[in-house]
Task: structure prediction
Amino acid sequence: MTLLVIAEHDNASLKAVTLNTVAAAQKIGGEIHVLVAGSGCAAVAAAAAKIAGVSKVKLADAAHYADQTAENIAALIQAQATGYTHILAAATGTGKNMLPRLAALLDVAQISEITAVESPDTFVRPTYAGNAMATVKSADAVKVITVRSTGFDAAVGEGGSASVEAIAAAADLGLTKVIGREITKSARPELGAAKVIVSGGRGLGSGEKYHQLLEPLADRLNAALGASRAAVDAGFVPNDYQVGQTGKIVAPQLYFAIGISGAIQHLAGMKDSKVIVAINKDEDAPIFQVADYGLVADLFQAVPELLTELG
Amino acid sequence: MKILVPVKRVVDYNVKVRVKADGTGVDLSNVKMSMNPFDEIAIEEAVRLREAGIAKEVIAVSCGVAACQETLRAAMAIGADRAILVESDADLQPLAVAKLIKAVAEKEQPQVVIFGKQAIDDDANQTGQMFAALMGWPQATFASKVVIADGKATVTREIDGGAETLEFKLPMVVTTDLRLNEPRYATLPNIMKAKKKQLDVLKPAEFGIDVTPRLTTLKVSEPPKRTAGIKVADVKELVAKLKNEAKVI
Result:
């Protein structure tokens, strides 16, 4: 078996989720190759070559891969697919965009967001917002898989010495053009990679209160900031803060749910966190059913107190 | 310009599903079924484009059992002009659905096909992208804003860490994210009107498409249960527990 892992990157650096995807590939077993498609992304290929367990890195460097558009990258992977038994990418916005397109080009199913590997053709994946775990077996010759990073401990990013092979770019399909990109600038860790996450919900009342109360706490704990769908819908914070079934799936060491009632869609995104702390004034809030430590209190008093207590 | 909107009948958003004791699936008997919420957003967007004079006709299409007619009536109550059911009792997986929608699209010749980004039952997030691949069309997934003018579309889409805006040539695929719009409530007069709108029923065999499932579900189980921990009396106790018991700060 030979497996191809699609590297996730921003042309400058390799994203950490790639290591979790490689870890899933290692669980399946076989020779692992990594595909880096981008523009001016030699540093990414060099980083991918260092991942323990990777034997070859394929590098497609062309201007039309700079923006990671699904149309062009799926066509490139399709051209490279011969000989691979499994093609894997992280279940991120980028992976979810391009991989189903690839699967259809190859006329195979995609197995979405696997959280465990049972055998080379059998995988576990969450359905119904994580309320039912399905074990599915694929009958296709090529398994196209997106990997939920919280299901696999990252592969070691150092010590490997894979060869880097430049491959020919596929033609630019010219179907789409990126005309603008707004990335939320933040000195805080990324939601997907943070060890501590401070999340706020509708209980905070306003965007102003959200920032005023939660930012100092996040700063003190070197935490990422998250939010429930209710807080995003109410306009407290931008949508990339959303943790839940249709937002980010996270599993930090420590998760603070502040003023979050705990709808099943939110729980789907954070219930694999190691330690969950909930602060809510409603003692019947469902969030307390999953919290390791629950504090029934007015968050407007408890959060400043918490900050003082942490020193 | 025609807009085609595929819709799926799923377990209602508010239902907490239960895994069957024999591990063969989730218990769907006597459970409320509704239109997939992302597909409601898709219908709403298409209807707004028609109301703005950009689209002439909005066609809802669903693939599945006869009861999907209810879902299509709901789509027409929001404002779709007519509907097509590709009726099948088979387990239709995303690739098969994408192929069936392709057959419908080849007949109807829409310029835009708007899918929900993900169905809340299988959480697959695939069908729109697969359909786009089969048609060779561009795909604007996870859209939060759609503007169509002069034969092209400008779409803002949600990406990890922010948003990006892209330009697309038509025909194209859009998949909706949560914040694209807020679907209207269907009014009683519109629900009544929807009952009289045209609904055609087709069979997959008419298209000669193989819908055999590629994935077999071997078992379905409950996720590992997380048990409730303890309630702490105050902030002091919370910090002490986090430091000394959980050792996470």
Chain A touches chain B through 87 residues (CB under 8 Å). The longest helix of chain A spans residues 207-221.
